[in-house]
Design brief:
The protein is of the alpha+beta class. The protein has two domains: about 200 residues; about 120 residues, Sandwich (Jelly Rolls), CATH 2.60.120. It is built from eight helices and 16 strands. It has a five-stranded antiparallel β-sheet with strand order 6-9-14-11-12, with no helix packed on it. Strands 5-16-10-13 form a four-stranded antiparallel β-sheet, with no helix packed on it. Helix 2 packs across helix 7, helix 4 crosses helix 6 and helix 6 packs across helix 7. The longest helix is centred in the middle third of the chain and has 21 residues.
Amino acid sequence: MLGLVAACADPPAPPSARRERLALIRDTAEEMGIHNAALIAGIAVSETNLAHCWSEATYACMGPASPSCGGPVIAGSADGPCSAMQGGLGLFQFDAGTWADTLASYGDAILTVEGNTAQAVSFVIDQVMAGVPGAADWLVAAGWIDGVPLAAGDPAMAQWAELMACRYNGCCAATELCRARADGYRDHALELTRELGAAFWRTDDRCAGLPGDGVIEQRSACYVAAGDPRAWHREAAGRGGAREWALTGAPGSFARWIIRVPAAGRYRVEVYAAGGEAVAGYRIAHGGAIDTVAVDQAAATGFVALGELGFAGGDEYVELAATGSPGAKLVFDAIRVAPSPP
């Protein structure tokens, strides 16, 4: 099992960085399907008091150099002397043994505050999938997290806090220490909610409708990227000079473009599919039906039509998963939705 350790409590990140860092946690969680991000931020407060760089928490060890810090990342000091180089790294304190072991397991991206945060969201969803009955897939697990009330006496909140103490912190026993750690995960989430207000944390209303031009870009408010962040790659290509890709066979990796049509009717759906190597199977949920349309990304140029389909409004989307034989490049770019001509 992955081991993560808490750094010692010390003064929090500077006020100028605190709100920005909490916004990054909130927005990263939303991109990956979670809207109850105060729970995720509460973990970061419990682990490092929101510090990612050693310059923000000089009580800790000086870890490897971080592009986010212009110097060393914070490294946990609870696993022995700093010379042993075996404490947790970064904002969420990832720890797979020595620093070299941790970087070999998670990649250099965890040295950045963005990569460390994305990996934490992925880790938490994996633990909910493993530890909560019925939360068998990514979006169901994210929905369970979204349903945890931010209330101290609620049983779901207690379940969340105990799960984090056990699966994240390794404190699974019915001891006073483990209860205190669980209470910390709970109380820090509640404190952050009171500190910044519910409006700061609200993201479930960001995808309110189709953009004016009907184009839904990747990493926009109506896009969810699921699965291990290590499977996702970004490059300066595709529509607008930015797209993502993953290799087919990456387990659990998929993207969903959420479609909020202004009125029920028939709409033309297109995908920007150029640049890939695989035959992509786009699943379209529309009007109570699900259709799958295959697109050869190796032969695609620009937008490719998936069809003119009936939409009723509600829970409708286009989804693409990194399934198939391993090793082919699968691109994730914009989709375009427009009313069909009469």
